[in-house]
Design brief:
Blueprint lengths: L7 E2 L20 E2 L6 E2 L4 H9 L3 E5 L5 E4 L1 H9 L11 H4 L7 H11 L2 E10 L2 E14 L2 E11 L1 H19 L3 E5 L5 E4 L1 H6 L20 H14 L1 E9 L5 E12 L5 E10 L1 H23 L3 E5 L5 E4 L1 H7 L3 H4 L4 H4 L2 H17 L3 E7 L2 E9 L10 E7 L1 H23 L5 E3 L5 E4 L1 H7 L3 H4 L12 H12 L5 E7 L5 E8 L11 E5 L11 H4 L22
Antiparallel strand pairs: 1-6, 2-3, 4-5, 4-8, 6-7, 7-8, 9-10, 9-13, 11-12, 12-13, 14-15, 14-18, 16-17, 17-18, 19-20, 19-23, 21-22, 22-23
Length: about 550
Amino acid sequence: MKIRLRDSVPGPPSDPEDPLVGGAPAAQGRAAAGKGRMMAEPTDLSAAVVDALDDSLLVVGPDLAVVSCNRSFRKLAERLGHQSSPVGESVLEVVPFLSGTAAEDYKTVFNTGSSVVTEESAGLGDASVTAEVRKLPVWAGGKVVAVATVFHDVSRRRKAEDSLRLKDAAIELSASGIALCSLEGIVTYANRSLAAMWGSSNAGELTGMQFGALWQAREAAEGALASLQGRGAWSGELMARRRDGSVFGTHLSASIVRQEDGVPVCSMVVVSDVSERVGMEEALDESEAMLRTLLDMDPDAVFLADPEGRVLAANRAAAYAFDRPLEQVLGRVIPELLGREEGELVEAHREVAQRTGHTIRFEAGAGGRVFDYRICPASEGPVTGKTLAIFRQEVTERSNAQRALREVNRAQQALIGAAPFAIVEMSREGTVRLWNWTAERWFGWSEAEAVGYHFPAVPREQERAFRTILDRVSRGENMRVTITAGSKTEKCTRIALEGIAPGNTWYFDKVIVMPYVTPTFRVSTSPSYSNVSVNVLTYSGAFTNRIPIGSR
């Protein structure tokens, strides 16, 4: 039980016999049977009035015994567990939820004639009741003869007050700025957040200001209030002006507050600072504009597709490639924009990229043209349900060139293989990369024995000089060199080394080794050699250390 002193009004009423001013009704004093208690005898009218009260009322004598009570109190006593009449019992027992100072409160009323008001809380079943308890003096013969105790249920009022306090706290502590304005547009209340938005630590500074004075465009704010009064609600964005003159973006939601009968009382405005969002939107717009510019500068078609294959965005090159205005490209599925064969192939690869999240590259042909496609996720992480970026580049000329190069390579390989002289391709380090059939016949080493190894025909004592020659040839010297080399059968052969430097390339990675034509001798050691119209020098004996180098 909680007690709180509310007021204390000393002194007797102007007419102690008048029941309407809180005194005892005019009555003759009489002693209670067997108890000698003093009580006032009410008239039949006053008793009926007291019984008709909704508030519980009881009269307490100087010994704190209940002298009388009305019907409402008897019902309250029953709820408190007293089935018999409470008259004659101690008020402290009949009303157990009275605070511990109740006896002192009654003594104060009897001694001083002052009324005492407290609040008491009690649990009645599952409910909690808060009552305002007023202890009022009853005067007779110029002295207090009894105390009338009135119990007024204020539970609903207290709940309403608590609810209002919670709402007040929620409004005051809200992160959004909240203001109440009169119907004339005068700010009557502003919370802390609203004051902080305007650069003030005191919300009271905003009170009394014209609502329109808080905004950069005063006419727009006053127009919003006018629209609010006409429609009952308004929402939009306005630029606000702080105390220091700086501006920031806000979003406003305003509505009219009305009484139960619909009469407007004031307007409530909720303000949110959206300057950060506006800044991010501006940065996003700038980024999108830059991205659009970059994409439109790309000569290749670039477009974004959603998980269903619909085009979300495309550059100008894509619209040109699809031979449609850009607005007719957006929202369409890929097979509708491409030919049937190309569209089905692209859609199949797009589904794979959508499912796996891997970048896929492939080529697709249409109408004699070849296109290089790359499909990749437009963002990191799981790609399911995300956008894919598709790049389409025409590579018809490159494809034709590659096909022609492959044909040239095949012809070159055929010529190399059928050449009547030995052709050996080596790196700058002297590692054999190509070893044709004639080289195999002349030097005796098979292709498997030569490719990937150093040139086997050079004697060990000649390797250093041979590497010097290779280095000079690799650095761009077009030269023909005669060198003494050996074969697997330990015969010696004079061969020519000729470096090939294409174009202006200074370094290159190939050295071609071909036998040097010597008109003085002819092949007589092997019938197969006689089929080759080249002259070689063969002899038995030790290798010579002399390597003649001649200019081209």
